[in-house]
Amino acid sequence: MNDALSGVIPLCVAGCDFRVAGTGLRQRLVSTPEARAALLAGVRGADPEAGLVMLETCNRIEWVVSAAQPQWVGQLLAARMMAAWEDDPDAAAGTPYVYAGMEAATHVLNVVAGMKSLAPGEAQVAGQFHAAVNRAQAEGASSPVLNGLAVAAGRVAKAAARVGFRGDHTFGIHGLTAAAVSQHFAGAVTPPVVGVAGMGSIGRKAADLLENLAKARVLRFNRTVGPEHAHVWRPLSTLASHAAQLDAVVMATGSVAPLLNNATFPLEGRGKKLLVLDIGIPRQAADAFAADPRVIYRDVDDLLTVKVDASHLARAGLVDAEVAREADRFARFCRERSLVGLLQTTHRQRAEIIQTRIPGMVEALMGACDPAVKKQVEDAMGSLVREYSNDIFDAFHEALKKTWSEP
User: Fold this and answer.
1) Which of 213, 219, 245, 260 has a CA-to-CA distance to 266 between 20 and 30 Å?
2) In sequence order, what are the residues at sequence separation of 6 or more whose Cβ sits closer than 8 angstroms to the Cβ of residue 211?
3) For residues 171 and 126, what is the distance between their CA atoms, to the nearest angstrom?
4) Using CA atoms, how far apart are residues 303 and 290, in angstroms rounded to an integer?
5) SS3 (DSSP) at 31
6) Residues 211-260: pLDDT tens digits?
7) pTM for the structure as a whole
8) CATH of region 3-169+323-335, choose from 3.10.20.30, 3.30.460.30, 3.40.50.300, 2.40.50.320
9) Are 239 and 261 spatial neighbours (Cβ–Cβ below 8 Å)?
10) CA–CA gap between residue 5 and residue 182 (Å, rounded)
11) Residue 196, strand partner residues
12) 80 near 39, Cβ under 8 Å?
């Protein structure tokens, strides 16, 4: 990777994933539109040109910011994350990571490629990052630098699929969920009955894998059920009526408040324990429900111990090479933007000096002189400024030419 490019990337990342912070800490950082607007206002208070993309998945929360002083902004973001945890008893166990410049760009590209996922090689995170950028654009929070990063991320995601590191439909949190159910009920005489709550992308894939790989009988629940799904989905409000027949429940909704409690899922009279796989962020089960002795509760962090096929990891080196290429390409994009912006600023400043400041100076110092003499002085001073600035412009153009000619 070209170290000469590292200082020109105005990018930072502050975040936490399953490696550095548990589910309880991560869920405190899940945003609302109001929270995103407030964070953007704070970032732009320090840098009016800054952009913000907030990536929120079941196993990571990351704030990606383009800013002129990325190291400083990254530390501010990390401090804000820690402030959200200050009254949490688990706060001492979690520390946000901060990346800046080339390190930040490489990190984001690795995340999108599935290299840093709970299930390495998952495809979902690429779509989640794309959706986060789209949301930032719709909310006026993105920037040209972040939009350029999104283009680079799209190329990396396609490359990871092309080399075979990702793309198998079993990779991802849904695959780990199906594997966990299979392992838990291994040896059972009859197939388990599993309820899957939340028919978003992950919930639908988990339900399909539970049927195909875990050989479970799956009941699908969703908050809304349109006519096209009425024959296979059930309203989430009816979950309680199916409680007695369910051996396990997979919670994959995006609810901001816990949905599983004794009212929504009665435990009375059960002759068997209920396996709960809570793969939502925030947590979808109330604390008292999760701690009930009739419940075996597992969240996203518990899936770390699930054994899955990892033969695709042999191709990780190919993804590393693609990430390095795209990181350099993104760095050149940032350098071009920096040089072009500097060139435009210098052009504006030269015009302002020649058209305004020199005439004003001449008038102040030579107001009583012959107008023709004043005009000659203005022209001479303007020529000096043009000659000097032309050398600067030539240097800019040579730098841009070198950038564009690099492989």
Assistant:
1) 213
2) 217, 218
3) 13
4) 16
5) coil
6) 988 899 999 999 999 999 999 999 999 999 999 999 999 999 988 889 99
7) 0.72
8) 3.30.460.30
9) no
10) 48
11) 220, 250
12) yes
